[in-house]
Amino acid sequence: MKVLFDHPNPFLLAHGGFQTQIEQTKKALEAVGVEVEWLRWWDDQQKGDLIHYFGKPDLSYVNFTRSKGYKLVISLIISGTTAKDALLLGLQKIITRRLIKFKMRKICELTRWESLRKSDAIVFLTELEAETGRQLWMLEPKKTHIIPNGVREEFIVAGKEEKKQKGEHLLYVATIRDLKRNAEVALAAGRAKVPIRFLGAPYSQADPYYIKFLEAVKVAAPFAKYEGAAATTKDLINEYRKARGVLLLSKMEGLSLAVLEAGAMGIPVLLSQRPWAIREYGSEATYANIDNKHREARDIRDFWGKADQSPHIKNVRSWTDIAIKLKDIYTNL
Hints:
Layout: E1 2-6, H1 17-31, E2 35-38, E3 50-54, H2 59-67, E4 71-75, H3 79-82, H4 86-101, H5 105-110, H6 113-118, E5 121-124, H7 127-137, E6 144-146, H8 153-159, E7 169-173, H9 182-192, E8 196-199, H10 208-219, E9 224-226, H11 233-242, E10 243-248, H12 257-264, E11 269-272, H13 275-281, E12 286-288, H14 293-306, H15 319-332
Parallel strand pairs: 1-2, 1-3, 3-4, 4-5, 5-6, 7-8, 7-10, 8-9, 10-11, 11-12
Helix pairs in contact: 1-15, 8-12, 9-10, 9-14
């Protein structure tokens, strides 16, 4: 079996977790015996059996795929949808389902709903996203699958080692963008008087939010510290080892790699008190109120004081585990 990987956005324009997910999935699939190539859009002689598309393709893409005899698997992240207010999301579901039922063809094509419904399989990261997708686009349950992100084996191995120190700071690992709330958390570090070290890079040095973040770090010094992104996996593991706990107080998330890496290493995490976090991690994480800056600071301070007694996320899978699950989906299509 040969699988062709496709994704609409060049990595050089926007790095992040989705890039890591795609690259690590390809590497792990090859390790379990699946031949994988990047789909070469310029090569009309390229051969394969199945296309795995990361994103939401347009309907013509799906139709051409079918006409050429390929099976189509879609990996979809809909954290922006699941993060919506319950009333707004409920209204969206009603409107979307009615448009689909009434066969409003042009709208369904433009929004790419029909593309999802015509695919052979759709892979979601979490139960919340799968449930929302099935309800929103009236997807066939047998076509929807839940396969989370994995972590590199190095994190799992490191997690088996005994932790010898309490941790000198909290760690915030995320791309620097407004969605991740890096600047707001830096200011919260100052209010809470808790040391937080930030790791990550912006999409652009000229990004206004990145500039806002750098200013927030200055205001919150010496509690907020930023020195760029970890260069290697080994560097990142060393940073985790020095941390008392890991924070991710985003507006929305799919399935954060940093949170899973912390879990694999047995490090407690503090997450946003939001459905995306609570539904996925339950009692294995601690939560902070991000709607009020004073309560957020208090929750960070409480976590800092009790981190050594706090739970951590368990049963984190490796990318090899993820590849085996994907291989089963490919084989059964």
